[in-house]
Structures are given as structure tokens and as C-alpha cells.
């Protein structure tokens, strides 16, 4: 077997005298104008949200809908099990159909739901989709997203921005993998991630410390040189022209080079969530704190990624190399949770309004409406 088998490369409440501390993930909701405080008031501008039930709850969509109502925007939770046209028209649709896109490859029902949604979008070109389905689909495949990240080293040359060397693995043969590791000059330890960048399995990762650990590789996957970064992850959350950077815990430093240590298997949610506490993130107290990424570099990175991806709602995981202080990109995420970004609601609303300002009047859908004898449609959202 040769190297050809590898593709190298809250809702608002009256103020209390002694308010409790805000939860870490709350979004700031500005005071609404009294004139348009009713969420049920008919609005001439409409935005649809097509999200899983889990995402709707985490985002607190009802609170965002109240904010939008104060600006004359009606928020609709789209139910994919019903004709989308009967729920429109929409100026903008915000979605995260990652589950449906992945499941459509092997589930006929999900395939039909996705097809119906695509048909609606094709028939309503005036509706702006955040984000376009092809753009989102490419980020579900780490083989594709890592190629995009790798190209940034060229497009952002001179900005001290890089992506660690990596391999696309399609074989279980340790000897072939080891040969490719040498050829591409990857350095141990290696971090291994699944090819599919969505779902619970996508968070299952491993650290491989020598060629003996290559037998723990389960293709298809990505192998990437691990970069020591002082156990600090910088999560960049993008909302249109805005971006926000939040620090999270991350993997601690490991001695460079191969060693006889056994492979470490871990879930990234256990390491890099705001509330994470793991022995894998513990640093020596004498470890100096690394400087944060420069504002100029972050602005350049976000601008270039928006152009490359054609997306407006995404996240970027970056670290600062312990030795070179180079800004290092390690992952891109579809419509993340925006935890730790209290400005998310206001920023998203501003971006949606900026899109609507460029649109003409919203035309009613002429698709047949459900008959009175049809079962009343449930609340929006799809199972995940």
C-alpha cells in the first residue's frame, strides 16, 4: 500500500434590589420600545429559525424573538415536517441543519426533509439563508475544512498565522500511516480527530505519542501535529461583520517528540467548555501566560475566512504557539453556541436588520395553505 491511499495534505425581568449574578452564558437583551413590545403583533419583516429543539432551548430563542418584536420583526420557528411555504414568507432564514444534512446520507426521511427545504430556498431567491447550505456542508468534513485552514497560510502570508501540519487518513495500516507522518514531517504527539465534524462522535479525540500508538487510529480521520499552547484556547465567534473572542481551557503542554506514553482518549467537551475541569488542562503554576492574539491578526483572519467560506455565523478555534507566539488555527465550527458572548443577541439582530434594509418588500407565498381539517402543526424545531 502506498501513500496514494492518503489524501495528503434572559428573558427580561424587572430589576431587583439585589440581583443575582448573571449566568456565564446569558445574552444581554436591550430594553425594548414600549410601542412594539408584543411578540404576537403582526410584523412586516419575518425571520425564520430552523434549528433543533436542543439548539432552540440553548439559544433561548423565545427571548431573542421578544427582542426582535420590539424592532418590528416577527420570529418564526420553522417546522420541517410541514411545508415551509405555509410558514413563510421570510426575509431571512437562520438555520443549523447539520443533523439533517448528515442523516440525509443514510435516512430517507431526513433526505426528504432536506430536499423540501432546498426546494423552498430555490423557489424563493429573495430569502437570505444564514448560512448557504453548500458552505455549511463543506465544514461537516474535516478533510475539506482543514484544506481551507491550510490555504490561509498563503492568503494571509506575513500575518504570522498558520495551521499545523496534518494528514488525511483513509487506512488502518500503521506502517503506511507512519510513512506518511515522516513524509509530511508531522511531529509527536499527534492529535487525532474524526473526519465528520458534527455529532457526538466528532468530539471524541485522541493524543498519540509514538508510532506504536498509530494502531489506535480509526479512519477516516485527521492526524495533526499537536502544538503546545499553554492550555488556553481562543474561541472566535463570528456574527456577520462582528467577531468576539472568548478564552477557554485547553489541553496542557506535553514534551515534544515521541515517547512510550499510551494514547490518551478524550472528549473535547470535557476539556474546552467554559465549565470544564480536567487533569488534561492542568498547567504548572510557573508556566508564564502567553500574550493574546493581536487584534490585527484576528480581524484579518475573520475577514479572509468569511470570504473563503461564504458564511456569516461560524466559530474559529485558535491557539498561540508556546514557542513562536504564532496564531495557529485548529478548527472551524458551524453556528456555535456563542457562550460567553453577551452581545450575541444584539449583534445578530443588527446583522439581520442590515440584510433586510437591502431587500425589497416581502411578497406573500402563493403556496397552498394547510386545510382547516389538517392537524395543527407543532412548535418549530426538529428532533436531534
UniProtKB/TrEMBL annotation:
GO BP annotations listed: inositol trisphosphate metabolic process
Summary of the function given for this chain in its UniProt record: Kinase that can phosphorylate various inositol polyphosphate such as Ins(3,4,5,6)P4 or Ins(1,3,4)P3.
Keywords: ATP-binding, Isomerase, Kinase, Magnesium, Metal-binding, Nucleotide-binding, Transferase
Pfam family membership, one: Ins134_P3_kin_N
Biological classification of the source: Eukaryota, Metazoa, Chordata, Craniata, Vertebrata
Enzyme class name: transferase
Family, per entry: Belongs to the ITPK1 family.
Gene3D superfamilies: 3.30.1490.220, 3.40.50.11370
Domain ATP-grasp: 153-360
Subunit structure of this chain's protein: Monomer.
Cofactor (UniProt): Mg(2+)
UniProt region (Disordered), positions on chain: 360-384
Protein's UniProt name: Inositol-tetrakisphosphate 1-kinase
SUPFAM superfamilies per record: Glutathione synthetase ATP-binding domain-like
Residues engaged in binding Mg(2+) 1: 317, 331
Residue positions binding 1D-myo-inositol 1,3,4-trisphosphate: 55, 96, 203, 235, 333, 337
Catalytic activity annotation: 1D-myo-inositol 1,3,4-trisphosphate + ATP = 1D-myo-inositol 1,3,4,5-tetrakisphosphate + ADP + H(+); 1D-myo-inositol 3,4,6-trisphosphate + ATP = 1D-myo-inositol 1,3,4,6-tetrakisphosphate + ADP + H(+); 1D-myo-inositol 1,3,4-trisphosphate + 1D-myo-inositol 1,3,4,5,6-pentakisphosphate = 1D-myo-inositol 3,4,5,6-tetrakisphosphate + 1D-myo-inositol 1,3,4,6-tetrakisphosphate; 1D-myo-inositol 1,3,4-trisphosphate + ATP = 1D-myo-inositol 1,3,4,6-tetrakisphosphate + ADP + H(+)
Residues binding Mg(2+) 2, per UniProt: 331, 333
Organism: Alosa alosa
Cofactor comment: Binds 2 magnesium ions per subunit.
A single Gene Ontology CC term: cytoplasm
